[in-house]
Amino acid sequence: MTRAITLHDVSKAYTRGVRVVDRLSLDIAPGEFLVLLGPSGCGKSTVLRMIAGLEDIDEGLLFLDGEYGNDLPPSERDMAMVFQNFALYPSMTSRDNIGFPLRIEAPGADPAPRVDATARMLGIEDLLDRFPAQLSGGERQRVAMGRAIARHPSAFLMDEPLSNLDAKLRNHLRAEIAQLTRELGVTTVYVTHDQSEAMSLGDRVAVLRGGVLQQVDTPRTVYALPNNVFVAAFIGTPRINLLRGLVRAPLDGAMTISLGKQFLRLPEPLSLDHQLLRVQQGREVIVGLRSEAVRIAKPSAARPGEVALTGLVEHLEFQGHEVLVHFNTGSRPAVVPELEAPRQRSDRPARRRRREGTVLERLRERAGALRAGSVATLDEPGRQDPAPAPAEPRVAGDLIVRTTPDIRLRQGMQVPLLVDLAHLFVFDQHGERICPNPERLPELEE
After folding, report:
1. What molecular function does GO assign, one term (predicted)?
2. Residue 409's domain is classified under what CATH number?
3. Shared domain check, 278 and 243
């Protein structure tokens, strides 16, 4: 039997009333593999523990198969949890570790048949008589998974089960987890900060930031249509190119997006998405370009919907099957830490602060900028001639392009580029996607 899990406006706060999970709502279908994805401290493990009953829910509702489950003890939720640190009993053999929850559930029953069946499924029959100290990291994780599988639970809860393993073993076990969960057909909630795991495992991915749900959808949709700057920047390898742009939409000329020393000329007739950009006339926006949206080619080779740029090669990353080329196009990087954070809800008054901020606030802003890398923030609305920003570490280019290794490039070369505007992302000053397919139509007074 598998289980449907529903979270409705669930919140959790610890010390000083700071919410680590803020009004989270999720519907997890029976048999679905849902991945909770986000950076460290975003609240994803807390969500998992609230589902398991290991943490109390401060606000909101939890439904298990449509029945109220907030006050249900963990032992009655029929769920199995796989922990990051394996959580094996060091004084028990693998056989005893797998069979321990079975003996607790049914003291008079013999757990051996289910333990043996689980071991065959995981290919660990020869490890059953070993102690955890005699096992490698991958073997311990298989035993920990076996302990969960042997119970035949209605849901698996996995809290970063592969994060302590090396990359090669992590990739191998990732494929095993995907195959096992498909065969068992059990509802699975999987927590990770690794977007590669999330994209390869999940039927759907729920992206969290600061305890607030940013987007939940299929991996393909989350990648192709990110709701905001944070989702766009968090999903995808290499990281999406985010540049500061300025929309120019004269009535008697072509619409362009200025990127500093160069600009993107939008082809006419304008598509519906590009027509909506007229509302942003004269405003700064954030332009997003995936590395595959730009190719190295002369303007004469442009296809419909492609526009030309030029870039100076600053750095080459040889990956074997491909090369990542870092170009300097004269553009301004536009990863904005404030926009990556969840927006404050309109029903919650924002705290007033002095323009210069306290020392603690300035330190927090600086820490946020360091976590996001070298950035250039958008100017505050209505602020003229801002003071020059302090010098930041030099970044190898402002645009990363993926290409094949047969193209010979060297540092310092001036290279023609073609940008496919069908894969152009534009975000407004609030960090929300306005192109393509905006979540809502922009208003003129915004």
Report:
1. ATP hydrolysis activity
2. 2.40.50.140
3. yes
Structure tokens at 47: 């969500």
- Res. 84: pLDDT tops 70: yes
Which segments of 129-246 does DSSP mark as H helices, in order?
137-150, 167-184, 195-201, 219-224, 229-234
The token duo for 20 is: 């680590």
Classify residue 368: in a domain, yes or no.
no
Q: Are residues 160 and 78 in the same domain?
A: yes
Domain that holds residue 115: 5-229
Q: Is 411 in the same domain as 428?
A: yes
Residue 130 shares a structural domain with residue 221: yes
Please give the tally of structural domains in the chain.
2
For residue 139, is pLDDT > 80? yes
pTM: 0.82
DSSP assignment of 287-327: EEE-GGGEEE--GGGPPTTEEEEEEEEEEEEE-SS-EEEEE
**330 DSSP 8-state letter:** S
Residue 358 located in a structural domain: no
Secondary element (H or E) of residue 339: helix 337-340
Per-residue pLDDT at 438? 65
The first and second tokens of residue 167, run together, are 């990359």
The one-letter code for the residue type at 12 is K
Half-sphere exposure of 274 (CA within 13 A, CB side): 19
pLDDT for 444 equals: 46
Question: From CA 84, how far away is CA 278, in angstroms rounded?
Answer: 49
